[in-house]
Specification:
The complex is a heterodimer of chains A (520) and B (42). Chain A is built from 22 helices and no strands. Chain A is an all-alpha fold and 520 residues long. Chain A has a single domain, classed as Up-down Bundle (Amino acid/polyamine transporter I), CATH 1.20.1740. Chain B has 1 helix and no strands. Chain B is rod-shaped, with a radius of gyration of 18 Å. The chains are: A mainly alpha (520), B mainly alpha (42). Chains A and B meet through helix 1, helix 2, helix 10, helix 11 and helix 14 of A and helix 1 of B. Chain A: Belongs to the sodium:neurotransmitter symporter (SNF) (TC 2.A.22) family. Chain A: GO terms for molecular function: symporter activity.
Chain lengths: 520, 42
């Protein structure tokens, strides 16, 4: 029996076995560290209960429409980010490589945080941080050098070993392929993550003072809605949380069947991600309420986000709470699971692009991509300067990498190529949510305008003072330099010719007339 | 918990978790006979 073009393509590139696996993989990518340690604090800082209004508007007017755009690009053009852009119009391929470069950079430091979480899961059992978690984190655990010392190569065994373990696990997953590696990881990890976090939330809600934490999180401050910064925070949270605009969703959607309902799937992914964020808010602020009561202070005095929440505030909670060890294991296990599924998706963007461009085998591409990234990751993030480099890279690649490429690619697709009507027709062929003029308006005007405003504000704030008070040269190299390098490398890779077996026309689909549009 | 906080928490739960439930029902209904094909992965 002759294989159909779709079967041939699936055999060549890899594919998810079903829509369910695709949805779980997309949720696994979207649900990451930011859901657990960023959303609760952002919501608390920006109006508490009132934040739900801008947050929901941002989800419906920017997050989900942008998710649809990524899905349309990958699903219609059947390729990694660079191939999908090249098939849209040859000259836009660099946008895909720019996204690939961003993913490679994020993977370098993301693995380090998962490694730290791994150590802290075990620390939770005997509360190894003692009476001062802050001193323990920067001192005994990271042996953090003063930023003025620059980049050091003083390796810290306590962070080197877990980082190596993370990379061994992740490389094994990537080598297994799209279905058996990426897909299977999400199918197993996402339900386990949900169970672990629900157990954590239940445990946190039983703590004395939990209601005070929930009061702090949900009491609405309606006057905050007059502040444009609150709306920017809502759009920023949705944007960074959904894994949109930097190649992941383009890559994943190229692995699902042509008749898959992409808009219906996108709605599930969008609401699952936000629903999990709400769960995180409840769990984290219940625990912070306990900590505030135990310390005799206001919740606002102990509320924090990011690394401070995970590795300083939570250990303090774990030390004082009844069944604190269990809370600690559940919390850090959740960080590991959420982090791993996201790291896998980030690496898949790079591996998929290299496979498409150079027609490499799965294992070969995994070796060529993941091994060098792992080496750089280990060199930079298992030393005493890890925290400084991580903070700078994370800040700059998010703001002047992800945010910038998202705005540029949306403007190019909407205004230079005028591709949105064709992409909308593609989504509508099998989509259960009709995509019409409202989507085109949101993607071509509203979303890029809001993201551009956030970008300008970030640019102004960052230019006003040296980021974090770090040495200028470190900010120049690991901040601005890295953000610029991914653009330059992206343009250079574009100069390499595609192999003859990878046509830049949209793969034949006799049912899809939009395949003949745009690329001409 | 104070009443406004309870109301906002319930609203957030209803909208986000309710929205997820509706989205799952919607995508289940839109299943166009897509079978769980086993693709060979290189």
């Amino acid at each position: 029996m002759t294989a159909t073009p779709e079967q041939t393509e699936a055999a060549r590139r890899g594919a998810f076995s079903s829509r369910r696996v695709f949805i779980l993989a997309a949720i696994g990518s979207a649900v990451g560290l930011g859901n657990i340690w960023r959303f609760p604090y952002v919501a608390y800082e920006n109006g508490g209960g009132a934040f739900i209004l801008p947050y929901l508007i941002a989800l419906l007017t920017a997050g989900i429409p942008f998710l649809f755009l990524d899905y349309a690009l990958g699903h219609r053009n059947r390729g990694s980010a660079p191939l999908s852009f090249a098939r849209l119009r040859k000259g836009t391929e660099f946008l895909g490589w720019w996204q690939v470069g961003i993913c490679a950079i994020i993977a370098i430091y993301y693995a380090a945080i998962i490694g730290w979480s791994m150590r802290y899961m075990f620390f939770s059992v005997d509360k190894a941080w003692g009476s001062d978690p802050e001193k323990f984190f920067g001192g005994e655990f990271l042996s953090a050098a003063d930023p003025s010392a620059g980049v050091t190569f003083d390796f810290v065994p306590g962070i080197l070993v877990p980082l190596l373990v993370v990379w061994v696990v992740v490389i094994a997953i990537m080598a297994l392929g799209v279905q058996k590696g990426v897909g299977a990881t999400s199918v197993i990890f996402i339900p386990v993550l949900l169970l672990a976090f629900v157990a954590l939330v239940v445990q946190a809600l039983l703590l004395p003072g939990a209601t005070e934490g929930l009061n702090a999180l949900f009491t609405p401050n309606w006057s905050a809605l007059k502040d444009t910064a609150v709306w920017a925070a809502a759009f920023g949270q949705i944007f960074f949380s959904l894994s949109i605009g930097f190649g992941i969703m383009i890559t994943y959607s190229s692995y699902v069947g042509r008749r898959t309902d992409m808009t219906g799937s996108g709605l599930v992914v969008g609401f699952a991600n936000s629903g999990f964020e709400l769960l995180c808010g409840i769990g984290v602020f219940s625990a912070l309420g306990f900590m505030a009561q135990a310390s005799g202070v206001q919740v606002g005095d102990v509320a924090s986000g990011g690394i401070g929440l995970a590795f300083i505030a939570f250990p303090a909670i774990i030390s004082q709470a009844p069944a604190g060890g269990l809370i600690g294991v559940l919390f850090f296990a959740s960080l590991i699971l959420a982090g791993l599924t996201s790291l896998v998706s980030i690496l898949e963007v790079v591996i998929s692009a290299v496979r498409d461009k150079f027609e490499m085998s799965r294992v070969g591409a995994t070796a060529v991509v993941a091994l060098p990234i792992a080496v750089v990751s280990v060199l930079l993030f298992s030393t005493t300067s890890a925290l400084t480099v991580l903070d700078i890279m994370d800040n700059f690649i998010n703001k002047f990498g992800i945010l910038l490429v998202a705005v540029v690619s949306m403007l190019v697709i909407a205004w230079a190529l005028r591709a949105l009507p064709a992409l909308a027709r593609h989504l509508n062929r099998y989509g259960s949510i009709p995509v019409r003029g409202w989507w085109v308006a949101l993607i071509s005007v509203v979303t890029p305008a809001v993201l551009a405003l956030i970008l300008v504000k970030e640019l102004r704030d960052t230019a006003a003072e040296t980021y974090g008070g770090y040495p200028d040269w470190m900010v120049a190299v690991f901040g601005w330099g890295v953000a610029a390098a991914v653009v330059v490398v992206g343009v250079l890779v574009t100069l390499v010719r595609w192999r003859p077996d990878t046509p830049l026309t949209v793969p034949e689909d006799e049912t899809d007339p939009t395949a003949l549009e745009v690329a001409r | 918990m104070n009443a406004p906080a309870i109301v906002m928490m319930l609203v957030a739960m209803l909208v986000l978790w309710g929205g997820l439930a509706v989205a799952i029902v919607n995508v289940s209904r839109s299943d166009r006979g897509e079978v769980a094909e086993a693709h060979r992965d290189l």
